[in-house]
Amino acid sequence: MSKKFGSSSSNYRKRSYSNLAYRSLKSQITMFVLLGLILLIIIGLLLNLKNSLTPKKWGIEEILHELEVGRIKNHITDCMSDIGIDAVNYLGTNGGYIYDFQGGTIPYDSSLLGTGYLNYTYLGKTYFVSYGLKKNTHCDQVNYSTAGYPYPELPFSSLQAIYDGSEACRFNNPSADYDGFFGESNMTKLCYVIRETSCKSFAKGLQSGLTIQSQLEDYVAQKLPYCTDFSSFAERMGVIDIVPEAAPIVEADIQAAQVILVVKYPVKIVFQNEDPISKILNYQAVMNIRLGGLYHFAYNVLAADSKNAEWNTKTDYISSYYYLPSFSVTKKKNPCPDCGEPYGQDDLIEFKDSKSLVKGRAMVFRVAVENRRPAIDFIPSTTIDVYTDAFIDIPFNAYDPDDEALRYYFLSLGPGATECSGIGAFDPSPFLKSGEAGSHLLGAAGWCENDLRIIDSLNYSRIWAPIDLADMGRHEVGLLAIDDSGLFDYQFFWINITNPFTDACFDDCIGAGYADEDCSGICSIAANECNSDCNGDFYGSPLFSGPDPVVCQQCIDAIIAAPLRYAHDNCNEITDKEICINHMPDCFWLKWWYEADSSFEESCFNDYDLDTASQPAYILETYP
User: Fold this and answer.
1) pLDDT tens-digit profile of 172-217?
2) What SS3 string covers 28-71?
3) How far apart are CA 401 and CA 305, in angstroms?
4) Which is the most buried residue in 60, 283, 320, 456, by most CB within 10 A?
5) Cα–Cα distance between 452 and 528 in angstroms, integer?
6) Which stretch of 14-23, 153-162, 447-456, 544-553 has the lowest confidence by average pLDDT?
């Protein structure tokens, strides 16, 4: 029994050893298999890495495809768009210029301040904004004399016909079709003359190098090589190099709703063991920016401003043919007060499109506008019958092309004693509608230039005054309009006050300094003396019964208001600014341009010789 038991234990131990050895061998095999798989993975990764590091030898067709429609093309067009946006931003904020210090072709010249551009600082950055509208210097029909501006003795309604009928006005300036009596377009042209484009009608100038297209093209052509790196792509494609053979050729098509840039880029592809290939690569980038539409809108608004004195840029722009709901106009008054005279009075206009974003903001196109003189529409002389009309009421129109409010002075050039000798406590209310100018002013003395009734009526664009027999005669009067900067315009005209019963008093009137001996006793006091025998035909008057030498005296007194100048002090002899200003409106203190010294002078002028001051001239109404 014991023997069998021992034999069985020995066999069990043998089987156990055998199982352990099998398991050990199996584990070793598994480990070798895993190590082999890991080794294979590592070898595969190394081979893949080697292949990725070893440039693939691309075929010519593959290389050209990559250059023209693949990743390289996307890189180039992205560069074109980025550079194009920069160019549009410069063009808009500078009023159509990209200066040389900004990478453009327009030389910056600091001496052109006020003639070529106006300084404007916004958010800490200074811009040099070119002028879009200045006074018209090409049309010889524009009269810049003080009293004759813009054209003597013709209403504004006739000005455009005169302008259009003048070959000198229409053809002396490349932009003459868009100019008028109140301004001249100076905006940079949008299109080439030498190339057919949709907006060629706006490009009449011969300076194609200054067009917006050419500046945009030059800027992109200059900046694009710095943005593109063909060498980095050449290495990936297994070629030695891709080298630009010349500067890119850029064409810009500025449309109403978008800007299209087309680039032809000549390059050379250099291979390892093959001849190089030259190729012109064609790229196109489209920017959804309405530069063309905004430009045409701005040009059209300024053209209307140059032709029509009544045009108000701040409100009338919505009537422009090119207006869109996303367009807006903002006028910045005197943006460069430190620029000195006269440029410190010039304005800035910003045209914006809220649907065209440039660098995250609404696209803007700025222009500077020269400060222009106000203008009074033609006021014809008038005759009033004092027998039927108890007052004068003369409407007038005056405008500031720069859309600012005007101040007015009434100038009376006849002898003051009679000019102010109206009936005094005259009640005008029976002759005026409720609320009409002067209806609330009673009892002032006459209608001379300091009469409160006249001064008040000027605010209503009328000249209103009561009259009576003592006002009979031909009165030379004037109206003066001043803008916020002191620029002014004025006109003289005649008010002839008559009466059918006493008109005969004027039949024999002659120039001052002569009197018939039969009339000299009474007529010598008149500025215009009369031959009539006051003791004869005019001893009495149909206005009164019986002979009345007083009435005859009144008849002669009526012609005292004659064409001699108002007898006030000679303002030219006044040297003190305060005294001169206190004598307005007989005297005016002017700052005027003295050509000989190329500087401004200041002195006192009579109301009747303001036209002797050389332009530009400013009336200063306050002191010191």
Assistant:
1) 776 667 788 999 888 888 864 434 443 444 443 344 457 898 899 9
2) HHHHHHHHHHHHHHHHHHHHHHHHHHCCCCCCHHHHHHHHHHCH
3) 7
4) 283
5) 28
6) 544-553
